[in-house]
Amino acid sequence: MSTRHDVQAPDSDTGASHRTARHVARLALGGALVYAGLGHLTFAREEFRAQVPDTVIDVLPLTTDQVVLASGVVEIALGTAIALAPARYRERVGDVASAFFVAVFPGNVAQLLNRRDGFGLDTDGKRAGRLLGQPALVAWARWSTRTHG
Q1: Closest residue by Cα to residue 69 from 92, 53, 48, 50
Q2: Which PANTHER family match (predicted)?
């Protein structure tokens, strides 16, 4: 004989799987940011230099290499924060990461406009295609760090 206590709400697994998906997405984004940040500092440093717009160097008292190094440190910090921040800070960290992705977007545009090769982006089509990925990163950062919605 079955009792009502044996019956689960039809959408109870949906909430759990949604939380799991957000958790996995958050950890993946954090790992990707740390990996990219390490690339800025080491193995992909030259490739990242192609993305620094000349206008950034014109207005900041930094060299292209210093901008690459600084952005690498920021990406490592953001990736670590996204992966490890306590739940009460995650949305704020996601907002900061989203703002970072918006802030570096002009570098991607400059790479296209100046026809700078980097990371296998050696045609205008590939460089333009990359621009479409930036809004996805913003959405990824926001969605994976939210506890609802």
Answers
A1: 48
A2: DOXX FAMILY MEMBRANE PROTEIN, MEMBRANE PROTEIN-RELATED
The structure's pTM equals: 0.86
How far apart are alpha carbons 72 and 24 in whole angstroms?
A: 23
Q: For residue 21, what are its two tokens?
A: 């998906």
d(CA 142, CA 96): 9
- pLDDT 10s digits, 59-91: 999 999 999 999 999 999 999 999 999 999 999
Q: Collapse the DSSP code of 113 into the 3-class scheme (helix H, G, I; strand E, B; otherwise coil) and give the result.
A: helix
Q: How far apart are CA 7 and CA 15, in angstroms?
A: 16
72-88: buried (b, 16+ CB within 10 Å) or exposed (e) per residue? bebbbbbbbbbbebeee
Question: Residue ranges of the domains in the chain?
Answer: 16-144
CA distances, 126 to each of 36, 49, 50 (Å): 19, 18, 14
CA gyration radius for the chain?
Answer: 19
